[in-house]
Design goal:
6 copies of one chain form a homohexamer. Chain A is globular. The first copy, chain A, is built from 8 helices and 4 strands. Chain A has helices at about 5-15, 40-55, 80-100, 115-130, 140, 145-150, 165-170, 230-255, and strands spanning about 20-25, 60, 105-110, 135.
Chain lengths: ~260, ~260, ~260, ~260, ~260, ~260
């Protein structure tokens, strides 16, 4: 949307019965020694652009920062408090609803970790703007099947900076991936209820991540980048785009009735 | 804890290496014509008492209100904003951490719906009190397997006021269940990405509930109370208590090291 | 209200011209070695139930926590900030006003100490909901005469955990009172303007309580439990209930005109 | 303090063991057709100056605005929300405590009505600055006896803009008093629990004032200015000053020990 | 306005098509060893009274405190946070707009330093009250030419407590000026982009002031009081009053159309 | 910084005595029919990248949104409240100061309009992080001379979307400029104190912009794009980069001492 004039946006809204806009949000945070800080924002941005192009919808500029306090032990991580993320999204949603966007879909690149903030903001926006529909697309929620199908590692290998995110970056930003730095890092939880599996549910107690530090010997990521491949990344990307486009089509069809 | 003196609590903390306290939180909100407004708080309270007794830990008095704006169309629903729930829990956690409780476990009876608020509060508390461990027990997260195993209905039958919550109340508060008012209510989402399945993950887009009203013909609940039975309720209760007690034992064992 | 369905509440509101609801709020805080932490909440809860039954009005579930920072030196005390109490009550009031309750009466068991927060919340609610009437019942305000009449001790004997609260608990929850731990504790203020008399006014400078600690030799309460008796407790309870019921009757009569 | 340099204040603090500062706060709000909007601030200011001179302590510049939403129906009333008053006082207290003032005494001219805000701010400041002592002087709290002794009218005659405040203004700012506009205005509450008596306690339910408007025929004040006299005003002023000075002397004596 | 009754204000508003009110805001903060803490508030107050009298408009009572954290190292400075200033002004503006003031002009005596807070508050008030016009008069913005014309010192001589403010106080409050304490104090910035010139623009990087302390040898002011004269002060005062009166006349003329 | 790993950032901080980081912030808002919504963010981003490369410092990812409520009448404008901008910058500054960046320079592309928010945030950050230096670079503040020198239009021609911003976009993003839509738009203020001159100071009253709407015939921009040229844009860009690099060099030199 940053490259359109206000008249272009005006035209788009007039031309569509239920205008749709995407809001990509990521995070700037450590992803181990092999991936750049911007991984989560790149994912949000890439997915939003792919979806927007395929579904012919608009997308706002990206939000590069998210809720990442537990990564602040590592230099370069920039974290917003949950309240700030909620305030930021609320203002963005208010602006978009004011202009008549009836479908406002947030694309979350900070997989799962931004969800409490985004769920809070969309819940409040739904109360404030009953004429607009709010939804959240998270690769680890809309792409459960594809992640399950493609994985070569175990549950814990696909976590932060592991098999899945490395694959995505190899597919979309190979020049930013340092393959020589690939190391498997996993940390067994103390309990069988501490799930490392973000794409399936089993008996789980939820517990916030604690702040690790490089001084304690941690590399930052949790997972196995050596299980990654560009091909997996492409397939994840394609599936998430495809699923979201299907969702938008079903959404628009339901609103026509 | 409300029945103990401060000296009793003092003694408990001194007697235990890693003292544990439970914080039950529910909601006061409509649960259809067959269940009382207090279902979620009763669940939190019953579970907390069961766990506390079995594991020999303390429990705070219950929080009867939660984040329930989408139910406000129905009389009797009392909703706190997400910010208020976060502020409330934050103050409770701060008090408990000050007294030296090293393990503070929130028991959520407002299944899944209170999670964004509780996750936000525990995340911030973890940053503020690194010497304390925070965890969240939600029946639909720690009891995934038992819910799966017991269900007779489909995914949507187990939602708000449906098969599972009705079973729980039949087991624990049968005098508050109006069996004559049992009606199956399900509302198909517009999309295959709109999951009704709270205890399993499939490709899903997250979208906040909108506020329904009785004037539109809704009864309030979503699910099938006719699939409920006291026996299922007992089994769910027993399993959640048992799992949580196991979790606490593993937690304390890990902290002894 | 927690034991009613939404249809029960709906019916109550429809059946009454000026529907009334009570909101009991207490505190979980130290009350010396002889009384449990829940004294203030038990008082709010007991009074609300007594009033509701006699006047045929509804009552919400209780709020167990209040503004008790000055007691945080004693284990088990859980304190909300004044802002949190205001936010919590505001959300509860908003929900109740939305459902059409025209009279919303807060029953304060944390005698006097919660008043700044409740006065702030009711003042703001009065501005926000001019169609609803807000009122606060505090035993030490609506029961001035009965407290004066019954007292055997001096002014300072009836303060926190002293003659009056111990009597109340002896009457209503005798199993929670440790009579063997009864000790008179009084602390003379430095000035004749420092009133210990909560039920009469004399020349006074207001000054917030400071945080005492058991390490300094304090037992926590201020007053004389040995002056307490179950009979006094019954009379206080009966009078506060009776006065409040009279108030509600006068209120409803004034609204009929 | 506004007429001193920072070096003067520095000297004062160095010269005193337990330096004392007064913070006068009033309100700018309607006081009927016979008194100016500034009555409450003039009272705070006059009293603070009198006390400061007699006790040789400092006073900050006055705060002219208070919590007066219920008077906003009348032109010229300027009201701060309770939160704003708390924030304002908190910042002032923080600054003063930082400079080493060990006794910070707020002089409230907006009799009783500002108390919830000031009590909240002093309570929080006491927690934040345990090395400083906070106190509140309100003419209707520190001058209970003198008001009782001097009154010619009944309880309701001494309320907002009535016998007492008119006397004060006649004594201190006679040029601002319009004696020709003196009218007795009293509004019986609906209930015997609705106290009009601000200087004595009887069985009372607390209930926030609702917003009256001139369009409804109200003159704004509640009380009887015809019962006022400059002499009463002088006596009230003298007594409040004298009592406060005594309080300060006792306070300083207690801190010397 | 503090000396008017509500009926006086009511009359003023009725008598004028586009009623105007001034809101003077200053600061209580160190101004070196030669000027009192109240300089900024005296300027706001004096200017507001002069403008009000000449233009026949109303003025609210003054706000004596502003955003002065960087002066807190010096005793006697009282600082509000930016948020508190915004909240305070917002409440004042809301009250005034409610009464029908169509032009609300803030007179800032805390030259330039209060502007971010006032700009934020007027911006939000403009959104909230589109029927009212908000403006800010700051001597260093509306009196650029007169300051330029009168100055004898260089750019840095006219800063905090220097040539201009000392002149103003000599003209209006000579009894509060300690001429024997006049000392020139200037601190060269590290960079040519660090402007000391508040009344002209050149290539500049904006950078917040840091907190200086007397312990480090600072006297507090920055500028040259020896360049001050009562005559300059009178001319500055006259010009700012005159310019503001002209502005108000043009404003009212534009609103008549 | 988004393309670096945390180890890269760690290395940069270790290698530099006084590490420097830039924070580019813009706005997404209407800029007339000839310029895209992203103009302000592109300016911030382009300048930050140019400065970072020349001065060998780091830059965070850009913030695409700013304080733009007065443009919300035009579709596509996305506005954050001033509070949200302050919260967002505060969190970013806190993260950067935590990692040891001693110089944190915000590059503002939303010329002048974002300044109250950025000034507030940098002021608070200076208090919170005295070990870090905060500064703000705004093209219309650090580039006063170059703007003056290059201008062909009058003062009002260079405002929002006019001569200067159009030149910048022609130089850096010519494909986003619609030259066929160039129209001169100027709106005379009602008063000679209403300055249109953002790069020089004359006697001025500050007054927030009001919300215009296309329905009222406005095109959105204020200024004269026909006076723009790519060459002017290049010169402005070069000068702002050069000035900022000089500033950074002087800053680092001053910190070495």
């Amino acid at each position: 949307m940053q490259d359109l004039t206000w008249q272009d946006v005006d035209q788009y809204i007039e031309d569509h019965d239920s205008p749709v806009v995407l809001v990509p949000i990521g995070s700037t945070e450590q992803h181990g020694p092999h991936l750049p800080l911007g991984v989560d924002a790149y994912q949000a941005l890439d997915l939003a652009e792919g979806i927007a192009e395929t579904a012919n919808v608009l997308t706002t500029p990206p939000i590069w920062f998210g809720d990442a306090a537990h990564h602040l032990g590592f230099p370069g991580t920039i974290s917003l408090s949950t309240e700030t993320v909620v305030a930021l999204l609320t203002d963005v949603y208010d602006s978009l609803a004011l202009h008549g966007f009836e479908n406002i879909i947030t694309i979350n690149g900070h997989r799962v970790a931004n969800l409490p903030a985004i769920e809070t903001a969309t819940k409040q926006a739904t109360e404030a703007h009953p004429e607009s529909h709010f939804a959240i697309v998270d690769p680890l929620r809309i792409g459960v099947q594809v992640h399950e199908r493609l994985r070569d590692g175990g549950a814990e290998d696909g976590m932060h900076g592991g098999e899945f995110e490395t694959s995505f970056m190899q597919a979309k930003h190979p020049e930013l991936v340092k393959e020589k730095a690939f190391v498997r890092e996993t940390h067994k939880g103390f309990s069988r209820f501490h799930s490392n599996n973000l794409i399936d549910l089993d008996d789980t107690v939820l517990s916030p991540s604690t702040r690790r530090r490089p001084e304690e010997g941690y590399l930052g990521h949790v997972g196995d980048p050596t299980k990654a491949s560009p091909k997996k990344g492409e397939q994840i990307y394609d599936t998430v785009v495809e699923n979201t486009v299907t969702y938008i089509e079903e959404l628009l069809a339901s609103q026509e009735g």
